[in-house]
Amino acid sequence: MEPVFLNPNSENIETSLMQTQQNLASFQEGAVGQIASYIDKVRGTPSAELTREAAIKCIFDLLAAAAAGIGDVGPIAIRRTLPAIFGNGINPIWFTGTGSSVIGAAWANSSAAAALDLDDGNRFARGHPGAAIIPAAFAVGNDVGATFEEIITAIVIGYEVAVAVGAARTSYGSSGTWTPYGVVATAAALRGTPYPEIEHALAIAGESAPNQAFAGGPAPRVPAPEGAAVKEGIPWSVVTGLTALYLAESGHTGPRNILDSGRHYQFPEHFSLGTADHICGTYFKPYACCRHIHAPLAALEHLSRQHDIVGQEIDSIEVEIHSAGLRISNRPDPENLIDVQYSIPYCLALVSLYGSGSLLPVTAEVLGRTDVRALARKVKLSLCPKFDEVYPTDILARVAITFKGKRFVSEPTAPEGEPLMSWGKLEKKFRIATELVASPVQANLIIDAVAAMRLGNMVPVCNCLSNLKLG
C-alpha cells in the first residue's frame, strides 16, 4: 500500500481521508484482515460440542507426546537455556515441577511435545498444529486467568487459523513456517487483543517465522538435512508467535498484506474461517515417526499379519508412495533418533523385525542395529503417480513384500488415526507412549484428570502439569 499524506490544502484533505479509509478497508478485505476479524468475532463464543470434544482429545494426545518427549535432547537443552533467555517464573514447564515465563514455558512444552514426532497433524496443512497451539494456549491462559471454556475456544481458533494458512501455501513449508499464525490467533483470543493489533501481530509472525529453508526446501535436497533437534521449527515458532503479539500490542507493525501474495498463498475463492472446523480433521499418530511413513507401515503390518511374514526371512520390500514421502531423508542407516523419524526404510525394517511397539515411543535402543540396517537396505521406494495425484485429499501407499520367494502386494492403504481417535484408543496410546517415563499411578492420575476436563474441570490437569515429575 502506498502511504497517504494529508495535504495542508483543505480541498485535498477530504480526498486524502477517503483514500486512507479505502486503504484500511482493503486490509480488512485481505486474508490477514479476515483472519483478525474471525478471531475478534469468535473468541467470546463457546465452542460447539463436536469441536470442544475434538479440542480435549487434542490436549490428551499432546500430553502423551509431551510426556514421552520430555527426556529428549532438544527439550533438555531448552530447559537448561530457559533461565538465561526467558527467566524463571510460575508458568509450569510440564511434568518437571519447574516454571518459567509465559514464552519460556510455552517454548519448553512445545519442544517436548514435538520431540518424538508423536504430535498431531493435519494433512492439508502438511504439518503439526497442536504442538505449537496447545502449549501457547495453556501458558497464556494461565497467565491471564482464562476459564477452561475460553482456553478450549482459543485452541479451536488456533487450529482453524493455522491449518487455513498452512493449507493455502503454494509450496511446502515445514510446520514452523505457518504455526505462528495459529499461536497469534490463540494468544490474541485469550488476551483480548484489539483487532488492529491482531492484524499486525499476524503479519509480524508471518514475516518473522522460522524459514526452514534447508529442512523444508524443495526436492531433491542434496545433501539431505542431517537429523537435528531443530526439526520443523515448531518450538521456535511459538516464541515467534507470542513475541509478535506482544510487539503488536506495543505498537510494532508488520506487512498486513503478507498473505495476499498469490505467489506464496492461494486461499479458497470463498475464504470463510470458522466453517471448516479444522480441529475435527486432526490426525493422531499410532507411531512416533513422520506421517508419510504411516501408510507404508499400515500396509506392511496388514500384509505381515495376513501372510504370517517373518521379518528375518524377508527378501525385499517395495514401497509405492506420493512424492512428499520421497522428500524426507529416508536414510537406511540413521545416525540419530530424528533420522529414524524420517526414514521409511528403517521404520519398516524396525517394525518387521521388532513389531510396532518399537515405534511407540522411539528410543535410543533402536539405533545401530545391524539386522535392521540390513533389512532397511532392501527397501526400495518409488513414486506412484496416481497416489501423488490424489495427495493430500487421500494419503495412500502400496507395499510389496517378497518372502520365501513369494511376492505379496497390499491394496492402496491409508494411515490410521484420522480423523482423531476414539477415547479408548487415545488412552491405550497414552499408556504405551508414557510407560518409560510415568508410573502406573502417575498415568492413572493424568487419565483421570483428562476425564475431569471433559466435564469442564481443568484443575486436575493443571495440577498434573505443575506437580507431577516424570522421567
| Main structural class | alpha+beta
- Total strands: 6
User: How would you state the average pLDDT, rounded?
Assistant: 93
Runs in which pLDDT lies below 50 for 5 or more consecutive residues are 1-11, 15-27
The strand order across the widest sheet is 4-3-5-6
Measured distance between first and last alpha carbons: 53 Å
Note the main sheet. 4 strands, mixed
Report what the structure shows:
This protein is α+β, with helices and mostly antiparallel strands. It has 19 helices and six strands. It has helices at 10-29, 31-42, 49-69, 73-85, 102-114, 130-144, 148-168, 179-191, 195-208, 234-249, 294-307, 323-327, 337-341, 344-354, 370-376, 385-390, 423-434, 440-454, 459-467, and strands spanning 88-93, 98-100, 314-321, 379-383, 397-403, 406-409. It has a four-stranded mixed sheet with strand order 4-3-5-6. A two-stranded antiparallel sheet has the order 1-2. A hairpin with a 4-residue loop joins strand 1 (88-93) and strand 2 (98-100). Helix 6 crosses helix 10 (234-249). It is globular and about 70 Å long.
Quick structural gist:
The chain is α+β, with helices and mostly antiparallel strands.
What keyword list fits this structure?
4-stranded mixed sheet; two-stranded antiparallel sheet; 471 residues; 19 helices; alpha+beta
SSE arrangement:
Layout: H1 10-29, H2 31-42, H3 49-69, H4 73-85, E1 88-93, E2 98-100, H5 102-114, H6 130-144, H7 148-168, H8 179-191, H9 195-208, H10 234-249, H11 294-307, E3 314-321, H12 323-327, H13 337-341, H14 344-354, H15 370-376, E4 379-383, H16 385-390, E5 397-403, E6 406-409, H17 423-434, H18 440-454, H19 459-467
Helix pairs in contact: 1-2, 2-8, 2-9, 3-5, 3-7, 3-17, 4-5, 5-6, 5-10, 6-7, 6-8, 6-10, 7-8, 8-9, 8-10, 9-10, 11-14, 14-15, 18-19
